[in-house]
Amino acid sequence: MAAHPTQPLYLTGGADGSVQLWEWGHPSCVWSPRAPGAFAKVTRVRFSDYGNKFAAADADGNLALWQLHPSASHHQPGQPHASPRPFFTHQCHSKGISDFVFLGSCSLVATAGHSSESKNVAIWDTLMPIKKALVVSWTCHEGGAASVAWAGTSGALVSCGRRGDVLVWDLRARAPRHKLHAHHAPIKCVALSPREDIYAIGAADGDIKVFSLATHQLLHTFTGEHARSSFFKHIGQGVTQIHIDNAGRLFSCGADGTMKVRKLPERDAPPPHQPHY
């Protein structure tokens, strides 16, 4: 699922390959850009920063983007609808896309997946013809890339692999700034803080680690937050989703069927005053 940045809309992607646009308070979907049965399982849906575009990725490696238009004459006033056909569709990774992210308000999209030639992280210009759409691709993350996050202020792309490795890319230089081995288990998800100074990583063993984006230093480790569970096998393993909000709270959910919220310690807080007697 994904929420629109400003409007009461949200996207859903199904295991049957369907993509649907919903409006809060309406019992049925506003638009079905992709019908069930025609494509592989949807692995990620996202709106662009301004909400004028949205995209879906699937387990076959396809990425599709649609425009979100204001109401047409046959729709209710003020009710948005999607273009019936995607303006961009391409198989970006031959063995599936795990994640993607819009790179700010421009036409660029970064994808993380698994390709037969190990080009597992790539940047695409979605306004270019398909043959010219690939901006750059990197051979990295043996076994496939699992997740990506974009820090627009510093121009850094964080990509995480299925073998626990993390790469921080400098998009201006098109080269890695830093590489670290964050987890022994496969990484499942990554989240940047709104200030883009820290990022959190959740792994299949249930551990969560928080790193500084500037220094790449490990700041916090939360061991076994979401342990493996046999009862919730259909969800996956370990930490499945993670989010950091403006108040410095870390939200996480996982294969143990729980959602947890914890306040991250303030890094810049002055030491507590010790009275002298």
TrEMBL record:
* Cited Pfam families: WD40
Q: Which UniProt keywords apply?
A: WD repeat
Q: Where are the WD repeats?
A: 1-23, 138-179, 180-221
PANTHER family, per the entry:
RABCONNECTIN-3A, RABCONNECTIN-RELATED
One Gene Ontology biological process: vacuolar acidification
Q: Which domain of life is it from?
A: Eukaryota
Gene Ontology CC terms: RAVE complex
- Mind telling me which InterPro entries this protein's record contains? DmX-like/RAVE_component, WD40/YVTN_repeat-like_dom_sf, WD40_repeat_dom_sf, WD40_rpt
Lipoprotein recorded as keyword: no
Q: What is this protein called?
A: Uncharacterized protein
